[in-house]
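Final report, closing paragraph on structural work. Over the funding period we assembled a curated collection of sequence-structure pairs, and we close with a single example.
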Amino acid sequence: MNMSKRIVGLTGGGSDGWDVFYKARKMVDDGVAVTELTIGEHDIRTDQSILDAMHRSASGGHTGYAMVPGTDSLRDAVAARLTARTGVHTTRNNVLITPGGQSALFASHHAVCDEGDVALYCDPYYATYPGTLRSVGAVPRAVPCLPENAFQPAFADIAAKSSGAKSLLVNSPNNPTGVVYTRETVEGIARACREYDMWCISDEVYDTQVWEGTHISPRTLEGMAERTLVVGSMSKSHAMTGSRVGWIVGPKDVIANLITLATHTTYGVPGYIQDAAVFALGEGLALEEKVGAPFRRRRAIGQAILAEQNVVGLVPSSGAMYMMLDMRATELTGEGFAEKLLDTHKIAVMPGESFGSSAAGHVRVAMTVDDDAFATALKTIVDFAKEIQP
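Its predicted structure, as stored:
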Protein backbone atom coordinates (compact mmCIF):
# COMPACT_ATOMS: atom_id res chain seq x y z
CA MET A 1 0.00 0.00 0.00
CA ASN A 2 1.25 3.48 -0.87
CA MET A 3 1.37 6.33 1.60
CA SER A 4 0.29 9.83 0.63
CA LYS A 5 2.70 11.92 -1.40
CA ARG A 6 2.31 14.64 1.22
CA ILE A 7 3.48 12.52 4.15
CA VAL A 8 6.46 10.95 2.38
CA GLY A 9 7.49 14.29 0.91
CA LEU A 10 7.61 16.41 4.07
CA THR A 11 11.38 16.86 3.93
CA GLY A 12 11.37 17.50 0.18
CA GLY A 13 13.25 14.28 -0.51
CA GLY A 14 16.37 15.28 1.42
CA SER A 15 17.66 15.18 4.99
CA ASP A 16 15.53 16.69 7.72
CA GLY A 17 18.61 18.58 8.96
CA TRP A 18 18.97 16.71 12.23
CA ASP A 19 21.69 14.20 11.25
CA VAL A 20 24.41 15.54 13.58
CA PHE A 21 21.90 15.73 16.44
CA TYR A 22 20.84 12.12 15.89
CA LYS A 23 24.49 11.02 15.76
CA ALA A 24 25.24 12.82 19.03
CA ARG A 25 22.22 11.28 20.75
CA LYS A 26 23.30 7.81 19.56
CA MET A 27 26.73 8.43 21.09
CA VAL A 28 25.10 9.46 24.39
CA ASP A 29 22.93 6.33 24.33
CA ASP A 30 26.11 4.30 23.86
CA GLY A 31 27.62 5.84 26.98
CA VAL A 32 29.84 8.48 25.37
CA ALA A 33 30.02 11.80 27.21
CA VAL A 34 28.92 14.51 24.76
CA THR A 35 28.48 18.22 25.40
CA GLU A 36 25.18 18.86 23.60
CA LEU A 37 24.76 22.37 22.24
CA THR A 38 22.14 21.36 19.70
CA ILE A 39 18.49 21.91 20.57
CA GLY A 40 16.76 24.81 22.32
CA GLU A 41 16.03 22.99 25.55
CA HIS A 42 16.65 24.89 28.80
CA ASP A 43 19.13 23.37 31.22
CA ILE A 44 16.74 24.39 34.01
CA ARG A 45 13.40 22.68 34.41
CA THR A 46 9.95 24.21 34.63
CA ASP A 47 9.75 26.33 37.80
CA GLN A 48 8.37 24.41 40.76
CA SER A 49 5.69 27.02 41.36
CA ILE A 50 4.27 26.34 37.88
CA LEU A 51 4.34 22.59 38.51
CA ASP A 52 2.56 23.14 41.82
CA ALA A 53 -0.16 25.11 40.04
CA MET A 54 -0.48 22.31 37.49
CA HIS A 55 -0.77 19.74 40.27
CA ARG A 56 -3.42 21.76 42.12
CA SER A 57 -5.48 22.04 38.97
CA ALA A 58 -5.19 18.35 38.09
CA SER A 59 -5.90 17.26 41.67
CA GLY A 60 -8.86 19.65 41.68
CA GLY A 61 -10.39 17.78 38.77
CA HIS A 62 -9.48 19.82 35.67
CA THR A 63 -8.47 16.65 33.82
CA GLY A 64 -11.39 16.22 31.42
CA TYR A 65 -11.92 17.84 28.03
CA ALA A 66 -11.12 21.52 28.16
CA MET A 67 -12.78 24.07 25.90
CA VAL A 68 -11.37 23.58 22.39
CA PRO A 69 -10.46 27.27 21.81
CA GLY A 70 -8.74 27.32 25.20
CA THR A 71 -10.05 28.25 28.61
CA ASP A 72 -11.43 31.75 28.92
CA SER A 73 -8.88 32.50 31.62
CA LEU A 74 -5.88 31.60 29.47
CA ARG A 75 -7.24 33.28 26.34
CA ASP A 76 -7.83 36.42 28.42
CA ALA A 77 -4.31 36.21 29.88
CA VAL A 78 -2.72 35.86 26.43
CA ALA A 79 -4.87 38.72 25.09
CA ALA A 80 -3.82 40.94 27.99
CA ARG A 81 -0.17 40.00 27.44
CA LEU A 82 -0.28 40.93 23.74
CA THR A 83 -2.16 44.17 24.44
CA ALA A 84 0.38 45.21 27.06
CA ARG A 85 3.43 44.26 24.98
CA THR A 86 2.33 45.63 21.62
CA GLY A 87 -0.37 48.24 22.27
CA VAL A 88 -2.71 46.45 19.84
CA HIS A 89 -6.09 45.86 21.48
CA THR A 90 -6.59 42.11 21.76
CA THR A 91 -9.44 40.07 23.25
CA ARG A 92 -10.01 36.38 23.81
CA ASN A 93 -11.80 36.26 20.44
CA ASN A 94 -8.43 36.99 18.82
CA VAL A 95 -6.80 34.01 20.57
CA LEU A 96 -6.69 30.24 19.98
CA ILE A 97 -4.74 28.07 22.44
CA THR A 98 -2.74 25.32 20.71
CA PRO A 99 -0.58 22.33 21.71
CA GLY A 100 2.63 24.32 21.44
CA GLY A 101 4.06 26.71 18.87
CA GLN A 102 4.65 24.00 16.27
CA SER A 103 0.94 23.19 16.20
CA ALA A 104 0.22 26.91 15.90
CA LEU A 105 2.49 27.20 12.85
CA PHE A 106 0.73 24.24 11.21
CA ALA A 107 -2.75 25.61 11.93
CA SER A 108 -1.86 29.15 10.84
CA HIS A 109 -0.73 28.00 7.42
CA HIS A 110 -3.83 25.82 7.10
CA ALA A 111 -5.85 28.97 7.69
CA VAL A 112 -4.32 30.99 4.86
CA CYS A 113 -2.94 28.52 2.29
CA ASP A 114 -4.84 26.31 -0.12
CA GLU A 115 -3.32 23.29 -1.84
CA GLY A 116 -0.60 24.47 -4.20
CA ASP A 117 -0.33 28.01 -2.82
CA VAL A 118 3.17 29.43 -2.50
CA ALA A 119 4.23 30.13 1.08
CA LEU A 120 7.37 32.17 1.74
CA TYR A 121 9.77 31.64 4.63
CA CYS A 122 13.09 33.19 5.54
CA ASP A 123 16.35 31.28 5.06
CA PRO A 124 18.01 30.58 7.54
CA TYR A 125 14.94 29.01 9.13
CA TYR A 126 13.92 26.83 12.02
CA ALA A 127 14.38 23.30 10.71
CA THR A 128 10.68 22.35 10.67
CA TYR A 129 9.45 25.33 8.62
CA PRO A 130 9.57 23.88 5.08
CA GLY A 131 8.04 20.59 6.21
CA THR A 132 5.27 22.44 8.01
CA LEU A 133 4.41 24.30 4.81
CA ARG A 134 4.44 21.08 2.78
CA SER A 135 2.24 19.39 5.38
CA VAL A 136 -0.64 21.75 4.58
CA GLY A 137 -0.17 21.32 0.83
CA ALA A 138 1.61 24.64 0.32
CA VAL A 139 4.69 25.07 -1.89
CA PRO A 140 7.63 26.39 0.19
CA ARG A 141 9.68 29.22 -1.31
CA ALA A 142 12.74 30.52 0.55
CA VAL A 143 13.66 34.19 0.90
CA PRO A 144 17.46 34.39 1.28
CA CYS A 145 18.63 36.37 4.32
CA LEU A 146 22.33 36.76 3.75
CA PRO A 147 25.27 36.92 6.20
CA GLU A 148 26.42 40.22 4.71
CA ASN A 149 23.06 41.71 5.77
CA ALA A 150 23.39 40.19 9.28
CA PHE A 151 20.69 37.68 8.24
CA GLN A 152 18.01 40.41 8.24
CA PRO A 153 15.33 39.81 5.55
CA ALA A 154 15.53 42.75 3.13
CA PHE A 155 12.45 44.14 1.40
CA ALA A 156 14.04 43.69 -2.03
CA ASP A 157 14.75 40.03 -1.36
CA ILE A 158 11.19 39.42 -0.15
CA ALA A 159 9.77 41.28 -3.12
CA ALA A 160 11.83 39.20 -5.53
CA LYS A 161 10.17 36.03 -4.23
CA SER A 162 6.64 37.37 -3.65
CA SER A 163 5.03 36.89 -7.05
CA GLY A 164 1.99 34.69 -6.52
CA ALA A 165 2.80 34.05 -2.85
CA LYS A 166 0.00 33.76 -0.29
CA SER A 167 1.95 34.10 2.96
CA LEU A 168 5.26 35.10 4.52
CA LEU A 169 6.62 33.37 7.64
CA VAL A 170 9.01 35.47 9.74
CA ASN A 171 10.71 34.85 13.09
CA SER A 172 12.20 37.45 15.45
CA PRO A 173 14.05 37.02 17.75
CA ASN A 174 15.35 34.51 15.28
CA ASN A 175 16.14 30.85 15.52
CA PRO A 176 18.78 29.87 14.41
CA THR A 177 20.72 33.14 14.11
CA GLY A 178 19.91 34.97 17.37
CA VAL A 179 19.19 38.08 15.28
CA VAL A 180 16.48 40.55 16.37
CA TYR A 181 14.84 42.26 13.41
CA THR A 182 15.34 46.01 13.24
CA ARG A 183 12.48 48.45 12.72
CA GLU A 184 13.61 48.92 9.12
CA THR A 185 13.41 45.15 8.60
CA VAL A 186 9.94 44.84 10.14
CA GLU A 187 8.69 47.80 8.12
CA GLY A 188 10.04 46.11 4.99
CA ILE A 189 8.20 42.90 5.92
CA ALA A 190 4.97 44.86 6.42
CA ARG A 191 5.43 46.73 3.15
CA ALA A 192 5.96 43.50 1.23
CA CYS A 193 2.88 41.90 2.79
CA ARG A 194 0.72 44.91 1.92
CA GLU A 195 2.06 45.45 -1.60
CA TYR A 196 1.93 41.77 -2.58
CA ASP A 197 -1.25 40.99 -0.64
CA MET A 198 0.29 38.33 1.59
CA TRP A 199 -0.55 37.08 5.04
CA CYS A 200 2.21 37.53 7.60
CA ILE A 201 2.73 34.65 10.01
CA SER A 202 5.01 35.94 12.75
CA ASP A 203 6.71 33.36 14.97
CA GLU A 204 7.38 35.28 18.20
CA VAL A 205 8.11 32.47 20.65
CA TYR A 206 11.38 34.16 21.73
CA ASP A 207 9.84 37.59 22.34
CA THR A 208 10.92 37.61 26.02
CA GLN A 209 14.55 36.84 25.16
CA VAL A 210 15.85 40.10 23.72
CA TRP A 211 19.36 41.00 24.86
CA GLU A 212 19.95 43.96 22.55
CA GLY A 213 17.51 46.03 20.51
CA THR A 214 13.70 45.88 20.68
CA HIS A 215 11.22 43.23 19.63
CA ILE A 216 8.74 44.70 17.14
CA SER A 217 5.76 42.60 16.09
CA PRO A 218 4.62 43.12 12.48
CA ARG A 219 1.06 43.12 13.85
CA THR A 220 1.71 46.56 15.36
CA LEU A 221 2.36 48.31 12.04
CA GLU A 222 -0.21 50.11 9.91
CA GLY A 223 -2.54 47.82 8.01
CA MET A 224 -1.01 44.66 9.48
CA ALA A 225 -3.35 43.60 12.30
CA GLU A 226 -5.90 42.34 9.77
CA ARG A 227 -3.32 40.29 7.84
CA THR A 228 -1.03 38.98 10.62
CA LEU A 229 -1.18 35.78 12.65
CA VAL A 230 1.15 35.81 15.66
CA VAL A 231 2.45 32.49 16.98
CA GLY A 232 3.42 32.38 20.66
CA SER A 233 4.30 29.76 23.22
CA MET A 234 5.10 29.13 26.88
CA SER A 235 7.98 26.86 25.88
CA LYS A 236 10.86 29.33 25.71
CA SER A 237 9.59 32.16 27.92
CA HIS A 238 8.72 29.89 30.87
CA ALA A 239 10.79 26.72 30.27
CA MET A 240 7.59 24.76 29.62
CA THR A 241 8.76 22.95 26.48
CA GLY A 242 7.16 19.63 27.43
CA SER A 243 3.86 21.13 28.49
CA ARG A 244 2.95 21.90 24.86
CA VAL A 245 0.96 25.08 25.24
CA GLY A 246 1.05 27.86 22.67
CA TRP A 247 -1.31 30.18 20.83
CA ILE A 248 -2.29 31.96 17.66
CA VAL A 249 -3.37 35.60 17.81
CA GLY A 250 -5.12 37.08 14.80
CA PRO A 251 -8.33 38.49 13.31
CA LYS A 252 -11.51 37.19 14.91
CA ASP A 253 -12.86 35.54 11.76
CA VAL A 254 -9.61 33.63 11.25
CA ILE A 255 -9.59 32.46 14.86
CA ALA A 256 -13.22 31.33 14.56
CA ASN A 257 -12.31 29.11 11.62
CA LEU A 258 -9.18 27.84 13.37
CA ILE A 259 -11.36 26.75 16.29
CA THR A 260 -13.21 24.54 13.81
CA LEU A 261 -9.87 23.11 12.67
CA ALA A 262 -8.89 22.42 16.29
CA THR A 263 -12.22 20.64 16.85
CA HIS A 264 -11.32 18.26 14.03
CA THR A 265 -7.64 17.78 14.98
CA THR A 266 -6.17 18.46 18.41
CA TYR A 267 -9.43 18.96 20.34
CA GLY A 268 -7.72 21.39 22.64
CA VAL A 269 -5.06 21.45 25.35
CA PRO A 270 -5.45 19.78 28.79
CA GLY A 271 -7.11 22.12 31.26
CA TYR A 272 -4.61 21.62 34.08
CA ILE A 273 -1.78 22.64 31.74
CA GLN A 274 -3.70 25.75 30.71
CA ASP A 275 -4.29 26.61 34.38
CA ALA A 276 -0.55 26.32 34.99
CA ALA A 277 0.06 28.65 32.04
CA VAL A 278 -2.38 31.19 33.51
CA PHE A 279 -0.46 31.05 36.78
CA ALA A 280 2.89 31.42 34.99
CA LEU A 281 1.77 34.43 32.96
CA GLY A 282 0.40 35.96 36.15
CA GLU A 283 3.90 35.89 37.67
CA GLY A 284 4.88 38.60 35.20
CA LEU A 285 8.33 39.71 34.11
CA ALA A 286 10.16 38.42 37.17
CA LEU A 287 9.68 34.78 36.20
CA GLU A 288 10.40 35.42 32.51
CA GLU A 289 13.63 37.20 33.41
CA LYS A 290 14.62 34.34 35.69
CA VAL A 291 14.18 31.88 32.81
CA GLY A 292 16.10 34.10 30.37
CA ALA A 293 18.93 35.09 32.72
CA PRO A 294 21.24 32.13 31.95
CA PHE A 295 21.17 32.91 28.22
CA ARG A 296 21.86 36.59 28.75
CA ARG A 297 24.79 35.63 30.99
CA ARG A 298 26.19 33.03 28.58
CA ARG A 299 25.87 35.43 25.66
CA ALA A 300 28.23 37.79 27.51
CA ILE A 301 30.60 34.89 28.27
CA GLY A 302 30.60 33.89 24.62
CA GLN A 303 31.15 37.42 23.35
CA ALA A 304 34.17 37.82 25.63
CA ILE A 305 35.72 34.55 24.41
CA LEU A 306 35.13 35.30 20.75
CA ALA A 307 36.47 38.85 21.06
CA GLU A 308 39.93 37.44 21.83
CA GLN A 309 40.39 35.76 18.42
CA ASN A 310 39.74 36.39 14.72
CA VAL A 311 39.03 32.95 13.23
CA VAL A 312 35.47 32.32 14.38
CA GLY A 313 32.97 35.06 13.55
CA LEU A 314 29.89 35.84 15.62
CA VAL A 315 26.62 36.80 13.99
CA PRO A 316 25.03 39.66 15.99
CA SER A 317 23.56 37.69 18.89
CA SER A 318 20.75 39.95 20.04
CA GLY A 319 18.13 37.49 21.24
CA ALA A 320 17.01 33.90 21.82
CA MET A 321 19.16 31.12 23.28
CA TYR A 322 21.60 30.64 20.41
CA MET A 323 24.85 31.92 18.97
CA MET A 324 25.46 31.55 15.25
CA LEU A 325 29.16 31.17 14.54
CA ASP A 326 30.80 31.86 11.19
CA MET A 327 33.26 29.02 10.50
CA ARG A 328 34.06 29.91 6.88
CA ALA A 329 37.67 30.74 7.73
CA THR A 330 38.21 26.99 8.26
CA GLU A 331 37.11 26.40 4.64
CA LEU A 332 34.76 23.68 5.90
CA THR A 333 31.03 23.55 5.51
CA GLY A 334 29.05 23.93 8.69
CA GLU A 335 28.20 20.27 8.46
CA GLY A 336 31.83 19.30 7.93
CA PHE A 337 32.96 21.34 10.92
CA ALA A 338 30.17 19.99 13.15
CA GLU A 339 31.00 16.39 12.21
CA LYS A 340 34.72 16.85 12.90
CA LEU A 341 34.03 18.67 16.16
CA LEU A 342 31.77 15.86 17.35
CA ASP A 343 34.18 13.13 16.35
CA THR A 344 37.27 14.86 17.76
CA HIS A 345 36.02 16.68 20.86
CA LYS A 346 32.58 15.16 21.58
CA ILE A 347 30.88 18.55 21.30
CA ALA A 348 27.62 18.61 19.34
CA VAL A 349 26.49 21.75 17.50
CA MET A 350 24.00 22.20 14.66
CA PRO A 351 25.36 22.83 11.15
CA GLY A 352 24.20 26.03 9.53
CA GLU A 353 23.12 23.99 6.51
CA SER A 354 20.47 22.35 8.72
CA PHE A 355 18.73 25.74 8.60
CA GLY A 356 19.13 26.53 4.91
CA SER A 357 21.68 27.48 2.29
CA SER A 358 22.10 31.07 3.54
CA ALA A 359 23.75 29.76 6.73
CA ALA A 360 26.26 27.55 4.91
CA GLY A 361 29.64 27.59 6.60
CA HIS A 362 28.12 28.48 9.97
CA VAL A 363 27.17 26.46 13.05
CA ARG A 364 24.49 27.16 15.63
CA VAL A 365 25.48 26.83 19.28
CA ALA A 366 22.68 26.51 21.83
CA MET A 367 23.57 28.19 25.13
CA THR A 368 21.93 25.38 27.05
CA VAL A 369 24.58 23.99 29.40
CA ASP A 370 25.89 25.53 32.61
CA ASP A 371 28.19 28.54 32.39
CA ASP A 372 31.47 26.71 32.96
CA ALA A 373 30.65 23.91 30.53
CA PHE A 374 29.54 26.46 27.94
CA ALA A 375 32.73 28.50 28.29
CA THR A 376 34.89 25.37 28.06
CA ALA A 377 33.03 24.12 24.98
CA LEU A 378 33.24 27.48 23.21
CA LYS A 379 36.95 27.80 23.89
CA THR A 380 37.42 24.30 22.49
CA ILE A 381 35.45 25.24 19.37
CA VAL A 382 37.66 28.29 18.85
CA ASP A 383 40.88 26.34 19.44
CA PHE A 384 39.75 23.60 17.07
CA ALA A 385 38.91 26.16 14.38
CA LYS A 386 42.37 27.70 14.75
CA GLU A 387 43.95 24.25 14.52
CA ILE A 388 42.24 23.21 11.30
CA GLN A 389 42.14 26.51 9.40
CA PRO A 390 44.31 26.41 6.27
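The chain is about 40% helix and 15% strand. The mean pLDDT is 96. We thank the funder for supporting this effort.
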